[in-house]
Specification:
Shape: globular
Distance between the termini: 21 Å
Strand content: 5-15%
Radius of gyration: 18 Å
Number of helices: 6
Structural class: mainly alpha
Helix content: 55-70%
Number of strands: 2
Largest sheet: 2 strands, antiparallel
């Protein structure tokens, strides 16, 4: 394998990761924080389809520790409240506070504007190609990880 190609791929991945960490928003929310808050918007103590911490882990591809840290941070900032699930006391229901909803809405607007600029830069067809290639990259990374661990 060409070492130059490997280095170029790594540089590109690092640049994407760096650019994707925080939005240029007034709240300085990370993208995964905006998405997590959005996932919690419909949570209610009486709802049957609540999103729990384990769902955040899966959908955001984050570790248990990272999700726990995020939830604790949200709670410390007054953005979420915790309540016991009446159907399963082992699961905690996370609900947005009024302040959490305001922060999410502000962040969502910034996020949507940011993503619109990104997608406009590519156009529909190139954006779809990028999505497909990123999916293929994710599959290749999982395959390589499995091969290394054999």
């Amino acid at each position: 394998m060409d070492n130059t190609l490997m280095l170029e791929l790594l540089r590109a991945l690092f640049r994407v990761r760096q650019a994707n960490t925080e939005l240029p928003a007034s709240q300085q929310l990370a993208v995964n924080e905006i998405v997590a808050l959005g996932m919690l918007t419909d949570n209610r103590s009486d709802a049957e389809n609540n999103v729990f911490a384990g769902d955040l882990m899966t959908r955001l591809s984050l570790s248990k520790a990272a999700v726990s840290q995020m939830i604790n941070s949200f709670e410390a900032r007054g953005w979420i409240a915790r309540a016991f699930n009446p159907h399963n006391r082992r699961k905690i229901i996370l609900t947005l506070t009024t302040e959490g909803r305001r922060v999410f809405e502000d962040g969502r607007v910034d996020f949507e504007q940011f993503m619109t600029y990104v997608l406009d830069h590519f156009g529909h067809d190139e954006a779809q190609q990028l999505i497909d290639l990123l999916g293929k990259l994710n599959d290749a990374l999982a395959y390589a990880k499995n091969k290394i661990n054999e």
